[in-house]
Write a structure and sequence with these properties.
about 220 residues; 3-stranded antiparallel sheet; alpha+beta; about 30% strand
């Protein structure tokens, strides 16, 4: 009777331990299932047991993966930054050249208006880069001089526009005259009736904007 009870007690303990086993996968052992009993869990602390039980379930990023992601993010950010810089530079370039064109248009409008009122030209002080003339406007005669000084175009000594890279004046007998000429178009003569203005302004990136106009002075004698 005593032997039978001893055998039954041992069988019950084995059954209890078997039913209380918990399995977990360890990456250190190739992912093979390991077993730990409640008895073992009692020996270990609660947190340690929980970590061992869930070791195979918790997965995160390795250091190499995080470094690779950071490198890719840096490459993308630098590429986007370069694109933004080029876009901003393009906008500034276009804005500066638009301002240069506006300067040229204002200067040409002023010259055309003044040359239309020319009544006489001072031949001694007129050449291919400057002109001195008398204009008749609103019943009043005034003497004016247009000349280039460095990169500035002046009207009676006052700046008309800057950024000038070229300014030439040609004088023709007829509106449709073209080369070869029987006269020097860079000099004024009594038979001249047409004034051709060529203005060049240098903008951003040394971009050259050219403006050209032919004027027939209506009061020229």
């Amino acid at each position: 009777m005593k032997r039978k009870m001893s055998v039954n007690f041992i069988s019950a303990i084995k059954s209890y331990n078997f039913s209380c086993r918990r399995s977990f996968q360890s990456p250190l052992d190739g992912g093979k299932p390991k077993f730990i009993t409640k008895t073992g869990c009692r020996i270990l602390s609660g947190m340690t047991c929980f970590a061992m039980y869930n070791r195979g379930r918790n997965k995160g990023f390795s250091l190499i993966e995080m470094i690779a992601v950071l490198i890719l993010v840096g490459i993308i950010a630098s590429t986007a930054g370069l694109g933004m810089v080029q876009a901003v530079q393009g906008m500034i370039f276009a804005k500066m050249n638009a301002a240069t064109v506006q300067k040229g248009q204002i200067a040409m409008t002023k010259l055309v208006k003044e040359f239309n009122n020319i009544s006489a030209v001072d031949q001694a002080n007129t050449n291919g880069t400057s002109i001195t003339f008398t204009s008749y406007k609103d019943g009043v005669s005034d003497s004016h001089t247009v000349a280039r000084s460095g990169n500035t175009l002046t009207f009676d000594g006052d700046p008309l526009t800057d950024q000038g890279s070229g300014f030439t004046l040609n004088y023709y007998n007829n509106f449709n005259d073209a080369a070869p000429f029987l006269y020097d178009p860079a000099t004024w003569g009594s038979a001249r009736r047409i004034i051709e203005i060529t203005l060049q302004l240098s903008g951003a990136g040394n971009a050259i904007s050219e403006f050209k106009e032919r004027v027939t002075p209506r009061n020229l004698q």
